[in-house]
Write a structure and sequence with these properties.
This protein is about 10% helix and about 35% strand. The chain is mostly beta strands and about 375 residues long. It has one domain: Methylamine Dehydrogenase, Chain H, CATH 2.130.10.80. The strands form seven sheets. It has a four-stranded antiparallel sheet with strand order 1-28-27-26, with no helix packed on it. A four-stranded antiparallel sheet has the order 2-3-4-5, with no helix packed on it. The longest helix has 12 residues. The radius of gyration is 19 Å and the shape is globular. The N terminus is likely disordered.
Length: about 375
């Protein structure tokens, strides 16, 4: 065997080709996702570029978060307006059929449809991008700002994270049924954002409470992990699953970001002393891009070096964007909230598309 062939063979042995499937998530599959993520991180650089894509959005807090569709488009969740869909391939914005308002964030179901989380609506809403149709699933929700986020569980059900509600809800798209799982939550705008942990449990991010919660869908149990969060209103707005399995909590009014480690059950403070952000996105280089809601500049956190930098570009500020979506090409789409235009940051190549579509990362 020649030296070149020997080197090639060893590289193939060290970096096997993974066959990921975004509909397969949970503890059995996380090691493959983690391997794929780390392989991408080792070879990617992210362009420090900010652009304003084409298209005009409603503004006025009309849209709240988004979902990456299997074809690479972004479905923006309708809060006080109808939904919008951004197509990065054609750089166009369109209005899908039949969507109504009253929702806040959403999840991509295993069949490719989008479940919109009922915030003030008392029924769910499911959009099918293949047929451009909207349906109302079975089940009645509390309304009154009950839920603002959800997580797709490894078995395909949707866990709605309690915001103003004292109980969660789980929607099953296969049986079209809605149930109330075990566990009582604080209510009072307690949690905003959820993260699917590598072991299949759901970490609920504290918004108006000093303790997090973790829901286990296998045992149907709710626990309070270690760690005390700041006793202020509107602590954190969502979390980002880091490549090592820890959770980066995005600070809104908190004085700094914090990181929860589910392996050691410990909470630490990150070297990220900024606030006013709403959601974050894992970049293909392993760093976290934090979405500017109030600030006029974004921030990028490096979990390996524990450092924070300010990327190029100026943002509108004043509740401009609510969450971001990692596109299939690795760029970040900032979802317009009060802004009438979106922003897209980065460039240089993305993750395996199954990573981006999976419940680990396909959220605001």
């Amino acid at each position: 065997m020649s030296l070149l062939r020997l080197i090639t063979f060893r590289q193939q042995q060290e970096a096997p080709v993974l066959e990921l499937d975004w509909t397969q998530i949970g503890p059995t599959y996380w090691p493959d996702y983690q391997t794929s993520i780390n392989q991408t991180i080792a070879t990617r650089t992210v362009a420090d570029t900010l652009i304003t894509p084409s298209g005009v959005y409603p503004g006025g807090a009309a849209l709240a978060g988004g979902v990456l569709l299997p074809d690479g488009r972004v479905f923006c969740i309708p809060r006080t307006s109808t939904a919008r869909i951004y197509d990065p391939g054609t750089d166009t914005v369109s209005t899908p059929s039949g969507t109504s308002s009253g929702f806040y964030n959403g999840v991509l179901l295993f069949d490719g449809r989008v479940f919109c989380v009922p915030q003030n609506a008392t029924s769910g809403q499911i959009y099918d991008p293949n047929t451009d149709t909207t349906t109302v699933p079975t089940g009645t929700y509390p309304g009154s700002d009950a839920f603002r986020s959800a997580v797709l569980l490894p078995d395909g059900r949707v866990f709605c994270v309690p915001f103003n509600s004292t109980t969660a809800r789980i929607y099953d798209p296969v049986t079209d049924t809605l149930t109330t799982p075990s566990g009582t939550y604080p209510g009072g705008l307690a949690f905003l954002g959820g993260v699917l942990l590598p072991d299949g449990r759901v970490f609920c991010v504290p918004y108006n409470t000093t303790t997090a919660r973790i829901y286990d869908p296998v045992t149907d149990t709710l626990t309070t992990p270690s760690g005390t969060y700041q006793s202020i209103t509107a602590n954190y707005t969502g979390g980002v699953l880091l490549p090592d399995g820890r959770v980066f909590c995005v600070p809104y009014n908190a004085s700094a970001a914090v990181i929860y480690d589910p392996i050691t059950d410990t909470l630490t403070t990150a070297n990220f002393n900024f606030n006013g952000f709403f959601g974050g996105v894992l970049l293909p280089n392993g760093k976290v891009f934090v979405i500017p809601y109030r600030p006029t500049a974004a921030r990028i956190y490096d979990p390996v070096a524990n450092t924070t930098t300010t990327p190029s570009g100026t943002y509108p500020g004043g509740s401009a964007f609510l969450g971001g979506i990692i596109l299939l090409d690795g760029r970040v789409f900032c979802v317009p909230f009060s802004s009438t235009t979106a922003r897209i940051y980065g460039g240089g190549g993305g993750f395996d598309q199954n990573v981006s579509l999976s419940s680990y990362y396909n959220k605001y």
